[in-house]
Amino acid sequence: MTTIRDVARLAGVAPSTASLALNSRKRVSSKTREKVLQAAQALGYIPNSLAKNLTAQRTGIIGILMAEIINPYHASLTHFIQKELRKKSYRMNLGITEGEALIEEEVLKDFISQKVDGVLIHTADIINFNLSTFYELIRREIPTVLIGGGFEGVNLPIVDVELEKGIYKLTRYLIQRGYKRFLFLSGLKAAVTFKRRIDGFQKAMLENGYLVLETDIVETHPDIEGGYTSTLEIFNKKHPAYDVILCVNDYMAFGVLRALRELKIKVPENIGLAGFDDISFASVAGVPLTTVHIPIEELAVKSVDLLYQRILYRENPEQKCIWKKTVDTQVVVRQSTR
Prior knowledge:
Keywords: DNA-binding, Transcription, Transcription regulation. Residues 2-56 form the HTH lacI-type domain. InterPro entries: HTH_LacI (IPR000843), LacI/GalR-like_sensor (IPR046335), Lambda_DNA-bd_dom_sf (IPR010982), Peripla_BP_I (IPR028082). There is one protein chain. By secondary structure, this protein is of the alpha/beta class. It folds into three domains: 4-45, no CATH class; 57-161 and 296-327, Rossmann fold (3-Layer(aba) Sandwich); 163-294, Rossmann fold (3-Layer(aba) Sandwich), CATH 3.40.50.2300. It is 45% helix and 15% strand. It contains twelve helices and twelve strands. It has helices spanning 4-11, 15-22, 30-43, 48-57, 72-87, 101-113, 131-139, 163-176, 192-207, 224-237, 250-262, 296-312, and strands at residues 61-66, 91-96, 118-122, 144-147, 158-161, 182-186, 217-219, 244-247, 272-274, 291-293, 324-327, 330-332. Helix 7 links the parallel strand 3 and strand 4 (144-147). The mean pLDDT is 88.
């Protein structure tokens, strides 16, 4: 268990000075106090008075808002979030919105009425969010963290994923491998996370002198069925000159792979295929999938940690809490591309 001596050692001060700093005594300079607070935050140390106050008020529940957990990516993220919350003695209340704005509003109102200690909102697939509900979380000073990206007009802490950068690097790699005609299968462009991936794709294409036609970006359901039906529809109508299909996530890519198999189009001999997320099944698919890796466990750890720090120090306005953390992405090359 972390003690005041551990905090003092990390901050480079005496234990008595660390104690004074944590109790907001005026005899400590602002510079010293800042060092001590940073050390306490890094070690997860809770001053006794703050711990008692928090224990008296807490419900021990964290609300998690997700669009769905059918996609293995979302299921894995939920698993790791729950694992991290347990380490901090919190229970998880999971609200599934199915991408519906009204359900989303109901879930957030339920969290408020349950007096949850904090809220984690995974922003993927959220399209028609209700700003007033988000403002209510802010007005009530309920610690809230957005996972995966933010929304215009919503000023909340974020753990961001380098979505544009990831798809940009993947597109550049595929161009370098000689691919020229891209079909991009996306979810609804109105969803922030999908729009960001489209932006990264278009940036890489334009920088390399490739024209992106409106028909080259197809909106569909970001799941196996969406990938399957869209591929059949596109390739049954005509014989397009596409030499690679880029999917907005791996889950959709599995549906594309199934459709191509039925159409007797070989991957990667006749056409390349790539996804995004690097879910656990991507490496063991019929044709192992080239994709973009998101470190899901790291994303969960950073999200819970950021929320936890905001819960601990919400009653200490002088504490400078981190407002944004970032999780990087990386291209993973497998046998679905040449």
